[in-house]
Amino acid sequence: MPPPTCGEFHPNCIDEFDAFETCVASAPCATDDQCTGDFESCNCKIDCSGKHLEADCHFDDDGKSTCTCSFDGQVVGTCTSAVRKCGNLTGCCAAVFAESH
Fold it and tell me: Over the stretch 49-61, which tens digit does the pLDDT of each residue have?
């Protein structure tokens, strides 16, 4: 099975993702993450209750992610993840957003 692409997650994690969205997401989101990118970088944007969240991630050769997390256009933190993942509700920025707002 090929690795997930930007903004996707492994099919075996669908139930866990649904539970996460129900439990952790602090604001109802009008849409899913809108992601663009490739195997070097990814940018995901989403609007939740009138707030704009954005994860801008870059991937190293080992598949790790380094992301800049923005809330309403202001950088609120950075994070790293051991996996190549970009997303506001599923990537490492989810924890940054939960802590900052």
Answer: 788 999 999 999 8
CB 37 within 8 A of CB 6: yes
Is 1 within the bounds of a domain?
no
Tokens 């790293």: give the residue.
80
Q: For residues 33 and 45, what is the distance between their CA atoms, to the nearest angstrom? A: 6
Q: Considering the domain boundaries, does residue 79 fall inside one?
A: yes
Does some domain include residue 5? Answer: no
Report the domain count for the chain. Answer: 1
Number of C-beta neighbours around residue 64 at 10 A: 15
Three-state SS at 94: helix
Note the pTM of the prediction, 2 decimals. 0.70
**Residue 3 counted as domain residue:** no
- Rounded Cα distance between 90 and 93, Å, is 8
- Paired strand residues for 44: 35, 55
What is the extent of the structural domain holding 19? 11-100
